[in-house]
Amino acid sequence: MDQDTGFDALHPRDYLMDRESDLLADLPDFHKMKLADVDVIERSAAKCQPRVPTEVKVYKWKDPNAEKETDPCGEESEELEIHNLIEEGASTNEEAPEIRIIMGLDQLLKRIEIMQCDIRLRQQLEGTIESQTEDQATMQQEQADMDKCHGFPRHLAEIRQLQRAQNQLQCQVTELLCRYANLRTQKRSLAHQWNLVLQKTAKIREFSREYQRWMQDTSQEISLCRKRSREIQSRKLTKHRANEVTETNIWSSFRYSQRYLLRKLVTRHMKDLRDEIQDLRRYSEELTTEIDKRVVWITKKATKLGRLSRISDEPLANDVSIDMIPSLIKLGSKHKGRRTSKKTQS
To answer: Which residues form a coiled coil (predicted)?
Structure first.
């Protein structure tokens, strides 16, 4: 029995595609379109290259039970027929959202497969160290899978490989759905931010309108304001002139202040005046006492001489003035001496 079980065909198959075609360049310019007009699923897979089915060589076993096994090509053809039926149903009923979602998911799956093939081809062409290590890791994993699948028929091994690929695609689809949910949340946040921006623009528009109204109200007064500003500039003092005016005012105030006494001198003169007034009061008191003494002495003398009648008829001031001249001179000299002594002491 031939030991060739066909494990060489278990390597990942490369789907037919044009190597020179740039898939990203074929995408439409979504930045020029409105966000409401772009579908999240359709915009990422609108112009994907359709998947072309490849022929799979199946080893024919002599076992009669092998005819009952499912053919991968048959499954793929049935899957394509299902997709074609879905596409026909979508063309007849374009308004059904579920069919459109299924079509979008199918296109996304095709696009993922095409991009995986393109990445593998680029890694093989570049031949970098990272790609070599990744290829070695994949080869080791495939070799381990081949070792596990050793002893199984070829079509069963290929079914196992297809199941693994389907599992990987399912994981990628779930990741894509998670990213779609994140994209929707980002869309909501962007819509909220857009509303805030619209509110700010509305406020700015109101401010601009108020400014325009103010400009219209004050446009007639601009010429008057300019005229007033020119008059003020012509009348106002310069810095040099202001300094001159302040200096002259300072000198004039200084000269004017010299005409008056200082506060200390005023208090000193007031004190001297009070002292003189006190001296004059004492002098007047002494003078009155001396006059009284003289009057008493004169009256006594007049009574002794018997001339009381004549003294009463004549004015007393003349006698007093004649008799009291030396005493008054003595009192004046005493008062003058006191004043001179006080001034010398001060």
So the answer is: 122-179
Neighbour-count burial of 189, counting CB atoms closer than 10 A to its CB (0-12 exposed, 13-18 middle, 19+ buried)? exposed
pTM of structure: 0.25
Radius of gyration of the chain (CA): 65
Residue 178 shares a structural domain with residue 88: yes
User: Under DSSP, is residue 342 helix (H, G, I), strand (E, B) or coil?
Assistant: helix
Residue 142 CB coordination number (10 Å): 17
Residue ending a domain, among 144, 173, 190, is: 190
Q: What length does the chain have?
A: 346
Residue 276 lies in a domain: yes
Q: Which amino acid is at 13?
A: R
Asked if residue 249 belongs to a domain, the reply is no
* pLDDT tens, per residue, the chain with 346 residues: 444 444 444 444 443 344 444 444 555 555 555 555 554 444 444 444 444 444 434 434 444 444 444 444 444 444 545 555 455 554 455 446 667 777 777 788 788 878 778 777 777 776 666 656 666 677 666 666 655 555 556 777 777 778 888 888 888 888 888 888 888 889 899 999 999 999 999 999 999 999 988 888 888 788 888 888 888 888 877 888 888 888 888 888 888 777 776 777 888 888 899 999 999 999 999 999 999 999 989 888 888 887 545 545 554 444 444 455 555 555 555 555 555 555 555 5
Domain extent at residue 60: 7-190
Nearest Cα residue to 120 out of 12, 209, 41: 12
The number of domains in the chain is: 2
CA 294/CA 286 separation, integer angstroms: 12
Q: Which of residues 190, 220, 238 is at a domain's end?
A: 190
Of the candidates 286, 268, 279, the residue with the CA atom closest to the CA atom of residue 337? 279
The reply to whether 82 and 168 lie within a common domain is yes
Are the C-beta atoms of 17 and 23 separated by less than 8 Å?
no
